[in-house]
């Protein structure tokens, strides 16, 4: 699928979804729509993704494109009215528009009408499927090994770790699948249930349903984790993913020097406690163990200091560890598979 | 509020909501609507609740009534069309109709129109408030002691234990509040968030919101727990309630001889493991401890055998225990408050 990525005024540093899609998605990105950087090339701004032109509006995007993907998420998840001409243009051309906003484009009268008139499609990835239901406790029946990333907090790198694991496993010759659970992961994968938006009773069931969908067609399934099991607001989502996935193995993700819950007045417990908490909580539903660690060292200056931080992290949680971005997942892949 | 309870063909044994409302609610029940038992009295059928006539239809209910409460929940939560004349009659009289069904009465065209025409009200207790959001992690700031019932499985008696705790605390002179989390509890209390129906990201937030609402006006708040922390489908709800409530104390509810998850092929872990799991999972958010046990001995013949089962349960989990229905909560109230 050839897509344009909408990322007005935020590309690349505050366009996590756009950059994630460029880095990990199977889409061919034909243009980034960002009025602030129009005229530049993507690789003028960021270098580890395929190059593409940056244009000021959707009307400047060449004809050979199948979809427009909203690649930024403003605080609150609203729709910025300055984007309306771009979405309108895409729908008038009969394209698919994909959005992870809280504001559902399919419920916008003009967009719904244009999509119907011109044969375009609107996919709000945050809107859960109406067919979800409670878990049957059978995710362990798939033939694939199921590996779940779990975290010490939000935003420590679980999605990146999961996607790097998929890439490393494929490089090593495994047939690997990615099971996304959040809107960016879903936009990268092109399918998936937004676990944080489903009815709480269906949290585990919505994960199980995805594992059943892909688990017999692959050697290994890597499930994107969310939140943390001791997060004061999001632990329910984490717990539902842990039990619904019935993961065989866990990878514990952490950010170096993070010592309190982001945005909350709560200290993180000692790191080894996460290992025992995740394992003991999972065990009655499905035995599992933390087999590797992924440390986010974006705040560490220099590879030597980062290497030291990773080694200390590995010692603390008593399993091999790496920084998936800085050092790659190859170093620990054998410990996982 | 004077109410009629709809319980066609299921009163009393399969009318858990109706009986719960009669036993624990503040409503004055003026009639039970059950075509199978019409002409009898409530106390001909069940003896530990206030008496009332049983009638065949809502049209036979005397005028001095404020509401009709749907006191039964068919499998699947649908609306039985044979109840339509009763609901229609109530709405034509301008009454409030309260329902815990999955099928929302307010979205039924005829019911919505009748309610509007006659000034009646429709309250679907399973429909979450649109104002819910993520937890701030501040439920521990209320002045009341917060006590949460937790369980080894679904349907072991958490709601009953919670309501018996409220009654025992009030008898002992405490100003106690009940925080309901499921539809029957909400119908008994007349307010509350249906935690199993909220968006998973808001699970903890929806509990926190209720505790903030009542926690400064009472000595103690008893929170109704849901599910179990190792339930393959519902653990997300349990985890969100545990962290959102920031409970100071836990009461562990169990049914005698239950050794596997109801409806699932999964053994329960040893009982002491529940104590350590609930406590260790809660601690990073808010320190808590299991201070008492509530054992459901409905399957045990005779008080002597039940007493023995309770004592064995207390020994196993190493805290005082009782059966709230058979022996009352007084026995352990001092250990809780």
UniProtKB/TrEMBL annotation, chains A, B:
<dbReference type="Pfam" id="PF07755">
    <property type="entry name" value="DUF1611"/>
</dbReference>
<feature type="domain" description="D-glutamate N-acetyltransferase-like C-terminal">
    <location>
        <begin position="134"/>
        <end position="332"/>
    </location>
</feature>
<dbReference type="InterPro" id="IPR027417">
    <property type="entry name" value="P-loop_NTPase"/>
</dbReference>
<dbReference type="InterPro" id="IPR011669">
    <property type="entry name" value="DgcN-like"/>
</dbReference>
<feature type="domain" description="D-glutamate N-acetyltransferase-like N-terminal">
    <location>
        <begin position="36"/>
        <end position="128"/>
    </location>
</feature>
<dbReference type="Pfam" id="PF17396">
    <property type="entry name" value="DUF1611_N"/>
</dbReference>
<dbReference type="InterPro" id="IPR035402">
    <property type="entry name" value="DgcN-like_N"/>
</dbReference>
<dbReference type="InterPro" id="IPR035086">
    <property type="entry name" value="DgcN-like_C"/>
</dbReference>
<protein>
    <submittedName>
        <fullName>DUF1611 domain-containing protein</fullName>
    </submittedName>
</protein>
């Amino acid at each position: 699928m050839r897509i344009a990525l909408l990322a007005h005024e935020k590309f690349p540093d505050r366009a996590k979804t756009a950059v994630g899609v460029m880095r990990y998605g199977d889409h061919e990105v034909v243009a980034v729509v960002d009025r602030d950087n129009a005229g530049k090339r993507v690789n003028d701004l960021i270098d580890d993704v395929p190059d593409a032109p940056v244009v000021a509006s959707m009307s400047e995007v060449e004809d050979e494109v199948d979809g427009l993907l909203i690649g930024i998420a403003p605080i609150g998840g609203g729709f910025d009215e300055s984007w309306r001409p771009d979405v309108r243009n895409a729908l008038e051309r009969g394209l698919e528009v994909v959005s992870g906003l809280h504001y559902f484009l399919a419920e916008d009268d003009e967009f719904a009408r244009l999509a119907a008139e011109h044969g375009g499609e609107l996919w709000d990835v945050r809107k859960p499927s109406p067919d979800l239901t409670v878990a049957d406790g059978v995710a362990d029946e798939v033939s694939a090994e199921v590996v779940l990333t779990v975290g010490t907090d939000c935003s420590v790198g679980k999605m990146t770790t999961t996607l790097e694991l998929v890439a490393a496993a494929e490089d090593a010759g495994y047939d690997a699948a990615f099971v996304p659970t959040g809107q960016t992961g879903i936009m990268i994968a092109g399918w998936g249930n937004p676990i944080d938006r489903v009815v709480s009773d269906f949290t585990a069931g919505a994960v199980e349903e995805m594992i059943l969908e892909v688990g017999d067609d692959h050697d290994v399934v890597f499930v994107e984790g969310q939140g943390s099991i001791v997060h004061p607001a999001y632990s329910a989502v984490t717990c539902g993913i842990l039990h619904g996935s019935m993961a065989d193995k866990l990878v514990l993700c952490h950010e170096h020097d993070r010592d309190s819950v982001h945005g909350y007045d709560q200290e993180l417990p000692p790191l080894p406690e996460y290992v025992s908490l995740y394992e003991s909580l999972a065990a009655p539903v499905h035995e599992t163990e933390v087999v590797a660690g992924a440390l986010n060292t974006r705040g560490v200056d220099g590879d030597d200091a980062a290497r030291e931080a990773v080694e200390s992290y590995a010692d603390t949680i008593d399993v091999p560890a790496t920084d998936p971005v800085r050092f790659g997942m190859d170093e620990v892949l054998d410990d996982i598979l």
